[in-house]
Amino acid sequence: MADFHRPVRMPAEHFDFVKGGEDPAVLVRSAHETAQALVSRVRADPDPEVVQRLVSFAEREGIDAVAELWSRAAALSLPGALWRLYLLREMVRRDPDLVSLAFNRGAERLRSIDPVIAGAPTPAGPEEILALADEILRGVFEGDLGLALDRAAAFARVTADGSLDLADDADATEPARADVLTKRAARLSALAEELSISARLQRDGALD
Hints:
Elements: H1 24-44, H2 48-55, H3 57-61, H4 63-70, H5 78-94, H6 96-109, H7 114-118, H8 126-142, H9 145-170, H10 175-203
Helix pairs in contact: 2-8, 4-5, 5-6, 5-8, 5-10, 6-8, 6-9, 8-9, 9-10
């Protein structure tokens, strides 16, 4: 894949966590406070312009700016879930052609309702996949948060399956590409599981 252009400085497909020298307890507490305040305030009055600015925040400021806010929080928490949603969107924004190819391959192979839950048309081109990523993240601020997390989890599962299938295709002739796709599939599968659990916690009123 091509390198990020500024202001994005951290490769989203690696799902890396930014480390810092500050007190981890303070950083985690701040992550929870900012996530809760932001989501509750915007959901109370979901102004479309504000919501759109939040959806495109990482695009304007860089994914590392989101990481500084929420990457240190536990996966099964509100800030942890927000971090993973922004990472998922950044993966799509970085290479919508490959993601749409993987999603469509997964949708063809999977015998589940995940493609329906994700909400993408079939087949889904790069523009539709980009729109879907925005729509899922927008749902955090102006829709049902649990549903947004479920949709993101379903999208990640479908794309993981398709990535693994693409890796199988490339294994004999492009082993390096196959390795990249296999690692992406593993990361997406883990992401899907974390988002699914977060969705259940949200419905139980336990995602904080």
